[in-house]
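User: quick one
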Amino acid sequence: MSQRITSASQYGHALFDIGGSFSRLAHAQNRLSSTRRLSAVSDSPGDAARVLDLHVAAQRLTQLRNSVKSAREIADSQASLLQNASELLSQARSRALEATNGATSATDLKAIATDLDGMLDQLLAIANDHTDGRFTFAGSRVDSAPFRFTADAAGDATHITYAGDDVHRSVRFGRDDVRAVDLSGAEAFFRFERGPTVVTGNTGLASVANAADTMVGDARIVVAHTSTTWGNGLIFPPVGAGDSISGLLPALTSGSDTIVGSRRIVVTSNVPGPGGTLAFEGGASTPFTGSESDLVLDDGNGGILHVDVRSLTAGFNGTVTVVGSGTVAADGGAAQAITFAADQTITAKDGRVVHLDTRNVRLAGESLAVFPGTQSVFDELVALRDDIRGAAGFGSVGLAERVQSRVAGLVSSQDGILVAAGELGARSGAFQRADEALELNSITIEDNRGRLEDVDVAATTIEMTRAETAYQAALAVAARIGRTSLLDYI
Amino acid sequence: MNLGFVAGLRALMASRRVLDVIGHNLANQNTPGYSRQVALLGATAPTNGPGNSVLGTGVEVLGVNAFVNEALLGRIRDQSELDGRFTAEAALFADIEAAAADLGEGSLSKRLQAFFDGASEAGSAPEDTTRRGALVSTAKDLIATLHQRRADLLDQRDAAISQARQDVEAVNPLLSAIAELNARIKNLTALGQPSNDLHDQRDELAKEAARLIGATATPLQDGTLQVTAGNVTLVNGALANRLVSKLDIHDGLKVTIAKGNKAIEPSNGELGGLLGIARDFIPARVADLDRLANRLILETNRVHSTGIPATGSFTQLLGTNAFARRGNLDTSTIALADAGLPFDLKAGKVKFAVTDVATGDIRHYDITIDPRTTSAAQVVDRIRQIPGLTASFEGGRLRIDAFSGYRFDFSRRIDGDPVEGGTFGDSHAVAIGSKSFPLALTNGSSLTVAVNGGAPQTVTFNSGSFADISNATAAEVAAVFNAQVTGASASVVDGRLVIRGNTEGATSSLTINDGPGSPVVALGLPAGTVGGSDAAVAVRTRGIGADGVDHVYTFEPLSDGKIGVTPDLKVAVKDENGELVATLDVGAGYEPGRDIEFAPGLNVSFGAGSISSGANQRFDLEVPGETDTADFLPAFGLNSFFVGTDARNIDVDPTLSANPNRVAGGLFGGAGDGANFDRLAQLADKALDGLDDSTAGAFANGIAGAIGNASAGAKTALDTVATSLLALEDSRQALSGVNQDEELVDLQRFQQMYQAAAKYLSVLNAVDQQLFTVLP
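Assistant: Done. Structure below.
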């Protein structure tokens, strides 16, 4: 200010100062009442740019947290459904094992089969869960039930197929961080982990350890007797038709023999004749008179040999070897001659194979090969139901064996479901941790935003007080301008 | 009159005159622009006294001067120009900022992010129509914000222009008044009369003119003030040019002098500030908004157009963008680059994915486009050549229709069941030629075919069955075969001849033997017997190629055997150049049906069954890369999300608004497929072409920042100028201002002078009276 002061300049300064201090006071009041340090970009363009970025970041985090929460709900929902499925399978296993009790009546078996059928329906209902307008386990084909079944004449499911796809819902955590949220129906219920093949039945077929079987589900293995070859006395291997030493001959009905593989027949002639007994080595004796053209020897395990004893050498005592030849076929595939090998590959009609140990094949008949972990839990349950219901009609395979092998398959499927549930649980946990991390991020962002955008109440209160004081001072000064002048003294 | 009376009278008159000046000063002490005046006193010329003495004759007022510093006034006028400019700018920027640079919930970047978040949200439950609807709503919110921002900016531009016109109207009386004062001052100066008050008035008017329109004032020798704006003289002497304003489509407002139409382009003053904002700043921000909207439309549509809606692939699509109409010119026949489409096309291709609904087969067809040479009519012709599709124009817009049994889209999905015509692991007996067509056959050449062990049937190739037997096509060969053989049929698959028995199973067979002319060798058919099998190998493929490049992968068995059974059974995968991409082990140890990744992002699985290299088995898998490298889809507005071209006309495609399930959120076609929603959401992080390599959100923040910075800059500049003006006014007041105390002191001083003079005269009078009393 110049040394020569005029009242006009004093009033000018007063106005300037009043305006400035009032502006600062109003600004401080606005900030305090709105609790915002920045009310416009021009308040601090640099800070405002950062605030705008933080607003967007906070919004993205909010959306991301919503997505993560939604993802977690989906994973939890699927895991819960799979837990329900697992519990249902445990019930099914327990109920099925009741059928292995030899004392279970036909009525009880029927009831068990009916229960299992109901459980199958429940399992299907779980797999076709429809929540919030979508089928939970359908992949991306959420508008139609993913698991469909073909039914028999009675309307019972016989085979379940998956009509969904393997497209996942996903949640994006960052530019290159996309995580799958859910499991498709195939991943949840068709989770195959092939276990050791189980062969049951009394044909003598056995599975081969660690073989690369490719058949799935179960296979009906048919062992057929094709011919019986008689040896000469103790000579082995057999060399001709009929035994030239003992005089035993195959009966005309020997085509109905069921023995497969090498057997020894112990001949004991009465002294003096005629007649005597015939017996499979180690088996029960069958008496004969010497006139029988078709004597049936039964080893008590289903092994049948038709013998013509009319030419038996009088007084012959000894052992005669017979060898049953046969074929083996699986699931409608071509019958293959049994090679009595440690690892014989049998091919089904669809080209899939099973490796069988045929060294100890003893009987014609049917065995059941079960391939645990190769078919869906639904098909396992269908097979179990059908076995208990007796629909499958495996002649030589006992119900208990069948059920136990099926249950083994069911256990494998249940394991798969539990693994799937575990995966979902792990995802849910990861989502929870991610949500917690996002929450921390949100807090940090909110903190940073608040520091930039929100008012520091204490500091602004002091600032406002100072502005108010300055304003009052400016007013007071303005009021005193010209109060004292020469006029007071003239 | 004696000399004493004269001196006393002069003292009385001088002091009275000084008191008048003091009164004038006191009266104008608060008059804006007033410069204090001072009466200059001087002794009157002396006279000769007795002898050689010289006698004083009193005092007189030599003149009345004003305290004025012209340079200071010039600086004040300069600062007034800036004060006017920054005052106008600060006020207008504050309004613009309030309307278009929201810092809170209404910020454009938040609306953009809400849109991208909406896409992400929809992707988390693609089947949820509500979330799809919410995405459309967020898009409409964004659009409303863009529209509002644009309209607000243009409103502010109108307000600035309106204010500028008022300033022009307001400055004309000032200019006239300055001219009039110039004339009066000039006359008074010529008469030697003072014109201090007129100068003050003129200076104040000039300052106001500077504040309003940034006019510059220059004092001239003749006492007049010349007022100019740029190189246009507004006031010259007693003449003032009237300013007129006229709305202008380019400049918003054109300000000229009424006579001569000479335009002034002020950079300062209110007018300069307002015109700067109206002409440059606001149009630049509007252009930014338009650019943002334009890139958003293009980028969103680029992504959206290659997706698949929840309603599935299309049976019909009508573009939203029409050719520009140019009188009678048929723009459909000129190069696309000149057809007036709202978005530029590039040299490239667009790939149509056509689905045969009955078989589920997907085939891809490319249309190559060079916008400098390709016309829309040619595009239509090329689309019509795609099996299952036709195209036409409807009101200048491209319309594509699928024939019954076909659907189409522009996605990158692959055929999930790629084996056609039994060319790989079929249950029928199949013989496949290894040669490419066209090829040369000999007239009269023949081969024999025995079906399922039946009698050999002879197939003779006569030249009459071919347009040119030396360049026989696969279709011609197949036709000849089918005309002569029963129990088997020939077809063309992937350009090769495929002969397939009509029955299936392990017992089915085809025995092909060569005859005269060796056509079997020429066709590359396997000579001898090929058998069928009880079950076909189910081949399934899925995924999307990660490299974004078109590929045709060929899968060929390297030996004969059973999937999952035969040791070392392998399938070779080669790309379109014949380069080996992968060798897949599908023999013993492979679990039929398991996925194998053969290329990044792509999987294949093989079901149980037999495959054979000896029978030339193989299948091709088309893997599309980017499906629209020409920007064909956004240019024509096909399967668009947004319509429009800028912030003024951007909108959501009405078909999506009406049915959110038409939002193409998928890439594979399932109702719960949200892969394309994810791509849309990713746009939030993508630096966009045309937005200075910024993301859309950052660019939007940049617009707000530009407004905020301009506003803050104007406020800061205004504060600086105000402070500067205050300091200059202080200086002016120090020199020219009226100090009441000074004036009162002078008042007292000259009052006493007056009293002293009166007393002096009274004494003289008394002396004279005394003298009269002594006279007789």
